[in-house]
Design a protein that fits this description.
The chain folds into two domains: 219 residues, Rossmann fold, CATH 3.40.50; 67 residues, Alpha-Beta Plaits. The chain contains ten helices and 13 strands. The chain is α/β, with parallel strands linked by helices. Belongs to the ABC transporter superfamily. This is ABC transporter ATP-binding protein.
Length: 314
C-alpha cells in the first residue's frame, strides 16, 4: 500500500542506528505528513524510542538521512528546536508554583506573551485550575498541563511518549478527546508511542508496528485489519469441546482455537452473521449448551497479538 503523504514533514530515508552490537533501527524509510497523527507500536526493544530520539535530535543516525520540515538537525538545529515539542510519560514540574505561573515560566523561554498562557489553558480545559498549586493536581491534570506547555509555541511536530500511562480509564478518555481536538485544530503532526491498543485505535490516522528495528507493517487501522487475517471473530463458551467439532469444518472458518481453562472457543470467520446462523441451528439440533456468544469485528488488539504470535518471533 502507498503510505507516502503529499506534504511530508518527517522523512526517514534508509536510516540505521547501532549501539555496539545492537542494531536498534535497521534501514527504516518512512514519511509522515503535515497534520498526521501516527502511532508507533511494538514490543519492548522494537526500536520505537531510538526512532523518536532521532526525530527529536537527541541521537543521530549512523546511516541514512532524516529531514524534518525540509531541514536537518546537523545544519538547522536552531530552526528546528522551537518547532518541536514533546509530552513525556511522567512530566516533572515545580510543585509550589501555580498552574498559571508554570505556563508563564515556560512561555518566557519562547518569549511568548502572557495572553498565550490563557489560550493554552483553555485549549486543555485547565482554566479553572490556573491558580491551583501544581502539587495539588491529579495525574490527568498534570498531563494536561504538560500538553498546554507543549502547545505554547504552536509546534509543527509533537512527540507523545506514552502520555496516558497510569491514568484511570475515564481520565485517559478525556485526554484522548483533547489530543484529537488539538491535532485537528492546530494541524500539528503528532507521533504517539503507547502500549494501549485502544489509544492508538482511537487517536491515530496511521499505525506503524515495529519489530527488531524495522517497520513490520503500516497503514490505517482498516487497511491493516483487511491485510492481516481479515474477518470477524466469534467467541463462545462450551464445556464439551468435541461437541462442536463439526463447526470447524466450513469454508467460512479461517481459524479456530480453544482454551480449555476458560472453556472458550474462538473462531475467525469470513462472515460472522452466517456462522452465527449455523451455530444457532446446530445448538438447537444437537442440544448443546453454549454460553456467552459474541460476534465482533477484529480490533487492533487482535492484530497486534496476531503479529506478536507469529511475525514478531519469525
Amino acid at each position: 500500500m502507498d503510505m507516502a503523504p503529499h506534504d511530508p514533514v518527517i522523512e526517514f530515508n534508509g536510516v540505521t542506528k547501532r549501539f555496539k552490537d545492537l542494531t536498534a533501527v535497521n534501514n527504516v524509510s518512512l514519511e509522515i505528513g503535515r497534520g498526521e497523527f501516527v502511532a508507533l507500536l511494538g514490543p519492548n526493544g522494537a526500536g520505537k524510542t531510538t526512532l523518536v530520539e532521532m526525530i527529536e535530535g537527541l541521537s543521530r543516525p549512523d546511516e541514512g538521512t532524516i529531514r524534518l520540515l525540509g531541514k536537518s538537525w546537523d545544519k538547522d538545529e536552531r530552526y528546528l528546536r522551537p518547532r518541536l515539542a514533546g509530552v513525556l510519560q511522567e512530566p516533572l514540574f515545580i510543585g509550589k508554583l501555580r498552574v498559571e505561573e508554570t505556563v508563564n515560566l515556560f512561555g518566557s523561554f519562547y518569549r511568548r506573551p502572557r495572553s498565550r498562557t490563557g489560550e493554552v489553558l483553555e485549549l486543555v480545559e485547565l482554566t479553572a485550575k490556573r491558580r491551583a498549586l501544581v502539587e495539588g493536581l491529579s495525574g490527568g491534570q498534570r498531563q494536561r498541563l504538560a500538553l498546554a506547555i507543549a502547545m505554547l509555541n504552536e509546534p509543527q511536530i509533537m512527540i507523545l511518549d506514552e502520555p496516558t500511562t497510569g491514568l484511570d480509564p475515564q481520565v485517559r478518555r478525556g485526554t484522548w478527546e483533547i489530543l484529537r481536538r488539538l491535532n485537528k485544530e492546530s494541524r500539528s503532526t503528532m507521533i504517539l508511542t503507547t502500549h494501549y491498543m485502544e489509544e492508538a485505535e482511537f487517536l491515530c490516522d496511521r499505525i506503524c508496528i515495529m519489530h527488531q528495528g524495522k517497520i513490520l507493517t503500516q497503514g490505517t487501522l482498516s487497511q491493516l485489519l483487511q491485510t492481516h487475517e481479515p474477518g470477524e471473530i466469534v467467541e463462545y463458551r462450551v464445556r464439551n469441546e468435541s461437541a462442536c467439532d463439526e463447526l470447524k469444518n466450513s469454508d467460512n472458518v479461517i481459524s479456530y482455537s480453544y482454551d480449555r481453562e476458560s472453556a472458550k472457543a474462538r473462531i475467525l470467520v469470513h462472515n460472522g452473521s452466517d456462522f452465527l446462523f449455523r451455530l444457532s441451528a446446530f445448538v438447537r439440533e444437537r442440544k448443546v449448551d453454549i454460553d456467552e456468544i459474541i460476534v465482533r469485528k477484529k480490533t487492533l488488539d487482535d492484530l497486534f497479538l496476531s503479529l506478536a504470535g507469529r511475525g514478531f518471533h519469525e
